[in-house]
Amino acid sequence: AEIIGRDPKTDLAVLQVKTKKQLAFVPMGDSAKARVGDWVIAIGNPFGLGGSLSAGVISAIKRDINAGPYDSFIQTDAAINKGNSGGPLFNMQGEVIGVNSAIISPSGGSVGIGFSIPSNLAISVIAQLRQYGETRRGWLGVRIQEVTDELADSLSLGKARGALVSEVSPGGPAEKGGVKVGDVIVKFDNKPVPQMRDLPRIVAETTIDKPVNVELIRRGRTKRIKIVTGRLQEAALDNKPAESKTEKPQDASVHMHLGLTLQNINPKSRRDFELGDDASGALVIEIDRASVAFEAGIRVGDVISEIDQKTIGSAKTAVEALKKAEKSGRKSVLVFVRSGGSVRFIAVPLNN
User: Vertex 185, ends 336 and 97: CA angle to 5°?
Assistant: First the structure.
């Protein structure tokens, strides 16, 4: 057998077998039609026992087990053991709807928690491996975060959905298409984005250089734009946060509110807290560990650059914005924070 191509991100490979014999094959099915409770059959080679069959039901779909960036596994209680990986998961029509890939087991044997790569994902990866010998995934050029119920309230979304854009790559497809920090992407290529983790998979499966329709929510209003997808390069951004410093800088204006002690950024604090030249806003130099701000995730060394999607230039304007949000009677305030090398939105509860 010869390896045509492999894709570690989805744990799939394509082999070419040269033989004069007529090889049997099985039809691929549509995994999108699979439902929780449907009966399925797994066939594999557990512990060297070739052609073993086990039956069960689909326990869950679109399961994320942190195995890769595009996790969307079919979970089944059909017995899957060591040696089942790569084997087919059949529906009751005899179609392959999954490729058995992983199990969760304290004992090493089946405890009824097995995972299968959906056939629709496998089909697209296999097609690219056959054509190019590698995968060619779509790229959007954004950093995103999950929309929690608290963030949804602050963003006027009604309910938690979509992917919140916390950073836009300069010169990337998203920036060229008009995406801005604070936008919530709810549809991409006319496909709904129920959760943040759905967006990378949808974008990756999109044809490169294809103009697609994107629906997003910006400051509570629906906006539709077109984006031409780029090609994902495998080199990932370095997301390591810088070490926090607890030394309190001197000689700058200090303001306090909601358990936060904020200070203007100056050359000394920029150096002490390892802030980049582009960092601007209010620097958190102390925080009450019993405060709502600490509970929400703000830490010493973070820089607050926006509050309620309005730019913050100093510690004083930050406190003024927080007090204004409190007076409005809202439950929380949307804060945009730079922490080390990453940026994110945080919904901070208000003391009303």
Answer: 130
At residue 296's C-alpha, the angle toward residues 294 and 300, to 5°, is: 40
Rounded to whole angstroms, how far apart are CA atoms 40 and 27? 15
Bridge partners, residue 52, by sequence? 44
Question: Looking at this protein, which amino acid is placed at residue 238?
Answer: D
pLDDT on residue 176: 93
Distance (Å) of CA 86 to CA 82, 117, 136, 194, 220: 11, 9, 22, 29, 46
d(CA 168, CA 181): 7
What's residue 247's pLDDT?
A: 38
What's the token pair of residue 253? 């204006």
Q: How far is C-alpha 347 from the geometric centre of its chain's CA atoms? A: 18
Q: What percent of the chain has pLDDT over 90?
A: 38
Specify the residue for token string 């894709």.
7
User: For residue 168, which amino acid is it?
Assistant: V
What's the half-sphere exposure (Cβ side, CA atoms, 13 Å) at 123?
12
**Contact of 325 with 306, CB cutoff 8 Å:** no
Closest CA to 312 of 333, 342, 289: 333
Contacts of 57 (CB under 8 A, 6+ apart): 36, 37, 38, 39, 40, 76, 77, 78
Tell me which amino acid residue 102 is. Answer: A
* Residue 105 pLDDT: 78
The dihedral built from the CA positions of residue 291, 347, 194 and 141, taken in this order, carries a sign that is negative
The DSSP code for 274 is T
The whole-number pLDDT of residue 277 equals: 78
> Cβ–Cβ contacts within 10 Å for residue 77, how many?
17
pTM metric for this prediction: 0.66
Tokens of residue 6, six digits = 């492999």
Q: Is 129 helix (H, G, I), strand (E, B) or coil?
A: helix
d(CA 230, CA 214) in angstroms, rounded, equals: 15
**Phi, psi (5° rounding) for residue 154?**
-70, -30
